[in-house]
């Protein structure tokens, strides 16, 4: 039986690269659109000769919150208009669409967010991600997957996300300031890739799904666990409030998701955050 064809946007990113590896291991046909998603003409003119696309997984986005506050036009062009272009592409070719969204569409005031909780984004990046959600939800076979992501690229650290910055800083014995009041329950890019494969394999038709680790830690606690595993660290850790750091974009604090619904739908016990940290560190050692 033919394995499904999957088109991934942002295929070289933290999640896209892990997903590509997972799907190829499972025998899927994997395609890279290789285009600026904000260019509607090129996206809709993509040549599908000889390709059968069953799913599009849309991971491409500008995720730098401060950049999005600084250049709102660029952020909107990629995160919102680019997502609308991908929705139009999915409609054109009759593919199911899975959109990678974020816990950050919520205000961060209470945490434990469920799929039916009302989004209330507090900075421009988060607003554009919610706009992207709305575009995807207007398409019947569109699914919004809200996540919080940590990990390293399969090809090695690029130092561009929290965990890569953390590990690079530990290895370089750099002093670090870490937020003790930003609470998260992320999954590694590897586990998220595994769960996306399950969604694709089962053709899940839910509109919104939350996936995350089953326990919640602060970013400072995550750093302490990583330091314990990388025992050579000689720098200093300073624990601060996110409110004390001057940033262009507002940072929410209680950024963690309820995963009860996803557990039932995927028949998958979400891993602990400690085991996810260990998984990432083991990937680094290979």
Oligomeric form of this entry?
single chain
| CATH homology-level superfamily of the domain at 5-152 and 184-213 and 255-273 | NAD(P)-binding Rossmann-like Domain
- Radius of gyration equals 19 Å
Fraction of helical residues: 25-40%
Largest sheet: spatial strand order: 2-1-3-4-5-10
Count, helices: 10
Would you state the CATH class of the domain at 5-152 and 184-213 and 255-273? Alpha Beta
Describe the structure.
By secondary structure, the chain is α/β, with parallel strands linked by helices. The chain has a domain at 5-152 and 184-213 and 255-273: Rossmann fold, CATH 3.40.50. The protein has ten helices and 13 strands. It has helices spanning 14-25, 40-44, 65-70, 72-93, 124-137, 162-171, 189-202, 219-229, 260-266, 273-285; strands at 5-9, 29-32, 55-58, 96-102, 142-147, 149-150, 176-179, 183-184, 187-188, 208-210, 217-218, 237-240, 254-255. It has a six-stranded parallel β-sheet, sandwiched between helices. A three-stranded mixed β-sheet has the order 11-8-13. Helix 1 crosses helix 7, helix 4 (72-93) runs parallel beside helix 5 and helix 8 packs across helix 10.
Summarize the structure.
This protein has about 290 residues and is of the alpha/beta class.
SSE diagram, text form:
Elements: E1 5-9, H1 14-25, E2 29-32, H2 40-44, E3 55-58, H3 65-70, H4 72-93, E4 96-102, H5 124-137, E5 142-147, E6 149-150, H6 162-171, E7 176-179, E8 183-184, E9 187-188, H7 189-202, E10 208-210, E11 217-218, H8 219-229, E12 237-240, E13 254-255, H9 260-266, H10 273-285
Parallel strand pairs: 1-2, 1-3, 3-4, 4-5, 5-10, 6-9, 7-12, 8-13
Antiparallel strand pairs: 8-11
């Amino acid at each position: 039986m033919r394995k499904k064809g999957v088109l991934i946007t942002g295929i070289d990113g933290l999640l896209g690269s892990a997903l590509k590896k997972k799907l190829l291991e499972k025998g899927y046909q994997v395609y890279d659109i290789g285009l600026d998603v904000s260019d509607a003409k090129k996206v809709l003119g993509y040549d599908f000769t000889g390709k059968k696309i069953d799913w599009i997984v849309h991971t491409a986005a500008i995720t730098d919150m401060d950049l999005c506050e600084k250049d709102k036009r660029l952020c909107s062009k990629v995160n919102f208009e680019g997502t609308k272009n991908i929705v139009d592409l999915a409609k054109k070719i009759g593919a199911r669409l899975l959109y990678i969204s974020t816990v950050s569409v919520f205000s961060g005031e209470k945490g434990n967010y469920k799929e039916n909780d009302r989004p209330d984004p507090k900075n421009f990046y988060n607003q554009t991600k919610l706009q992207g959600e709305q575009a995807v939800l207007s398409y019947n076979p569109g699914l919004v997957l809200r996540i919080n992501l940590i990990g390293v690229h399969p090809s090695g650290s690029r130092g561009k996300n929290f965990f890569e910055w953390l590990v690079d800083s530990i290895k370089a014995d750099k002093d670090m300031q870490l937020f003790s009041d930003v609470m998260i329950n992320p999954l590694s890019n590897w586990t998220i890739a595994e769960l996306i494969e399950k969604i694709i394999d089962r053709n899940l038709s839910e509109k919104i799904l939350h996936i995350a680790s089953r326990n919640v830690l602060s970013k400072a606690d995550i750093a302490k666990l990583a330091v314990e595993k990388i025992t050579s660290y000689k720098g200093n850790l300073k624990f601060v409030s996110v409110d004390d750091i001057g940033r262009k974009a507002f940072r929410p604090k209680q950024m963690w998701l309820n995963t009860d619904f996803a557990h039932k739908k995927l028949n998958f016990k979400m891993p602990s955050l400690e085991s996810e940290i260990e998984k990432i560190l083991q990937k680094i050692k290979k």
